[in-house]
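We emphasize that the prediction below concerns an isolated chain of 213 residues; any contacts that depend on oligomerization or on bound cofactors are therefore not represented. The input was used exactly as deposited, without trimming of termini.
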Amino acid sequence: MNRLEKIANFAKNIHAQNNDGHGFDHITRVVALAEKILLTEPSADRELVLCACYLHDTYDEKLTDNVAGQKALVSNFLDEIFFDKTVKNKIFEIIDNISFSANLIERKTLDINGQIVQDADRLDAMGALGIIRTLEYGWAHGRELYKSTDKAVKNLTKETYHQNTGCTINHFYEKLFLLQDLLNTAEARKIGAKRDKIMHDFVKAIENESNYF
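Result of the prediction step, given as a token string:
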């Protein structure tokens, strides 16, 4: 078993029981999207990109109450499978700087490897599967689907982003509709354009149909 396979198994064990849109199915789609983008970005480091893809949610603050402890667990695992400190730090640098919330106040500067991981993760938040993931997250956290009087929050900070308990549809306005303009690579923007339209059509339909009750 090579290092990438070991990392995939490690991530699978962490995400196996997740039911709020951050399961291992999400991880495998991010990896597949990154592979597609990598075909158009020959200067990127494939192993670094895919390692970061597999591990990008392993200590996400949305998914664990002990970020520091979980990150230490990931760090120890990487040591065990013989990643040197320089490569390990590059993996953590990508993971720590790609999230939407980490870029709310100031957009982080990422090299091509980080840009690909970020694009792949954001693409899986978009389109039909992105809609499903958003609904799963809302259901798992007891959120109402749509409420016309519940308005989306503008000028989010990292704190208000994570604390927000508004209806699920608000998430499209607060984050998902913004992603198309935040994608880094040409390939991601091409994929994202179709997914962005799917989301807008879905939200428009929800809002229109909600007028009947």
